[in-house]
Amino acid sequence: MTKSNKKGVLIVISGPSGAGKGTICKELLDKRDDLYLSVSATTRAPRKEEIHGVNYYFLTKEEFECKVSENDFLEWAEVYGNYYGTPKSNVDKMLNTGKNVILEIDIQGALKIKENSEDGVFIFILPPSMEELKKRITNRQSETQESLMRRFSSAYQEINYISKYNYGIINDTVENAVQKIENIICAERCRVDRIKDDILESKEGFIHE
Amino acid sequence: MTKSNKKGVLIVISGPSGAGKGTICKELLDKRDDLYLSVSATTRAPRKEEIHGVNYYFLTKEEFECKVSENDFLEWAEVYGNYYGTPKSNVDKMLNTGKNVILEIDIQGALKIKENSEDGVFIFILPPSMEELKKRITNRQSETQESLMRRFSSAYQEINYISKYNYGIINDTVENAVQKIENIICAERCRVDRIKDDILESKEGFIHE
Predict the structure, then answer these.
(1) B117-145: pLDDT as tens digits
(2) How many angstroms separate the Cα of B171 from the Cα of each of B128, B161, B175, B189?
(3) ipTM of the shown complex
(4) Containing domain of residue B15, as a range?
(5) Number of folded domains in chain A?
(6) Residue A159 contacts B where some CB pair is shorter than 8 Å
(7) Does A207 lie at the interface with B, CB-CB under 8 angstroms?
């Protein structure tokens, strides 16, 4: 029996704004050195201290459009005149060398990736409660009451998309949520769909020895 | 968001003879007090020290056949004139009170259960290598060379059934294998199929508060 699965797992971490996916991903990447963050590409100008290849791949509009025409994005979108996208070839390269790739993305992006990824693992991060979600959205925005309610209502609606995902994790504490994602990664690497070719191949190898 | 999934998970642990599933199950049950072993029913006579309801439910042939006619077995089989089966109502009762149920069973039994269980988790235990499998089968049997080869050949063929399972675990060490099963149970309890009704229900509850 082979002991290492050759291909890494693409782990898409997503959920409504305010659920805490950013903090979870940061903690997960700090804790585990076998996980790699997928770096997005964008045409917006770099902010102070942002580094090309670390925070984003900063591309010109022409470069980005060229990649779009070459079908080199798992998903992309235009937001306020700038392009943002997930470069496919980078992700594939990491997966093919056995690395597990973490991709933090909003729900619309995740659903687009799902159309293009057969064996990605889609994890939906949920707030501990709707009250807590409201509080988080309120705390981090300096907006009008009306726009806060709009943001909350949108996050509330977005929770319905959980049914498109493989796993749902309630972010009661970051530590618990991170541990559950680690367990999911371990479980996914044991899935028969991912390992059976290796197993059956190594079995055949034995009989011919 | 609800924090506890109401229903337990049925975990079917199976694999070829010699892969070590018995040792793994014992260790798993010793380690975790939220796991319950499904006790089989049989019509064979109890051996010394075997206790009704612990090692087996010892039934008369009539009692067993009555349960068969009531469709109260997840699977059953006749072996050398005795019946063996997995009582369905016991398993369902445990699952419905949120307990996770471990069921250790051979491959034929597991495949029958799969036909009757929509949401069971089927885990295939693999030996560390085919050499090791051969050694284990040889060590524990006092049989002729020919019958050993037949047993090995049968175990070898049985590995093909892995494709019917959800997960495959290489039993390199019992500790590793047990840890992986624990991770799988955690991951399965986060599966959207298992939790989404609770999530969406608790969300609706909030909006009407």
Answers:
(1) 888 999 999 998 888 888 887 876 667 88
(2) 5, 17, 9, 23
(3) 0.88
(4) 10-38+99-207
(5) 1
(6) yes
(7) yes
